[in-house]
């Protein structure tokens, strides 16, 4: 858990930039859902996904592959894509991207 329980564990990381030259790839967002209390996780992740603009994404860090949560994201207004980037016992990293 975060040392300050009123803060969500969201990080922005600078990357090498994007190929289109607009600067959209300058920040990489990640949300560590492992640090969010279990009963609030889905709501927090669904809110984060809903806040994305078209073309934006974040990496979701979870204690397991979040199959039910990904199904919920697929039902949100707008179009989303998700890709499992890493998975091992007790850890998964999924990129969630808004496509429309």
Properties at a glance:
single chain, 100 residues, alpha+beta, Translation Initiation Factor IF3, five-stranded mixed β-sheet, globular
Describe the structure.
This protein has 100 residues and is an alpha+beta fold. The protein has a single domain, classed as Translation Initiation Factor IF3. Helices cover 21% and strands 34% of the residues. It is built from 2 helices and 5 strands. It has a 5-stranded mixed beta sheet, with helices on one face. The longest helix is centred in the middle third of the chain and has 13 residues. It starts with 9 loop residues before the first strand and ends with a strand. The model has no long low-confidence stretch (mean pLDDT 84). It comes from Actinomyces gaoshouyii.
Topology:
Elements (H helix, E strand, L loop, with lengths): L9 E5 L12 E6 L5 H13 L6 E6 L4 H8 L5 E9 L2 E8 L2
Parallel strand pairs: 2-3
Antiparallel strand pairs: 1-2, 3-5, 4-5
Organism: Actinomyces gaoshouyii
InterPro entries: DUF2249
Pfam families: DUF2249 (PF10006)
Assign the CATH architecture.
2-Layer Sandwich
Could you state the order of secondary-structure elements as H and E? EEHEHEE
CATH domain class name: Alpha Beta
Percentage of residues assigned to helices: 10-25%
CA radius of gyration is 14 Å
């Amino acid at each position: 858990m975060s040392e300050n329980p009123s803060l969500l564990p969201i990080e922005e990381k600078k990357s090498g930039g994007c190929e289109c030259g607009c600067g959209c790839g300058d920040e990489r967002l990640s949300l560590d859902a492992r640090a969010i209390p279990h009963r609030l996780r889905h709501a927090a992740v669904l809110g984060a996904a809903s806040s994305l603009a078209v073309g934006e994404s974040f990496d979701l860090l979870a204690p397991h592959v979040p199959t039910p949560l990904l199904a919920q994201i697929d039902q949100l207004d707008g179009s989303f894509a998700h890709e499992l980037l890493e998975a091992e016992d007790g850890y998964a990293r999924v990129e969630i991207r808004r496509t429309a």
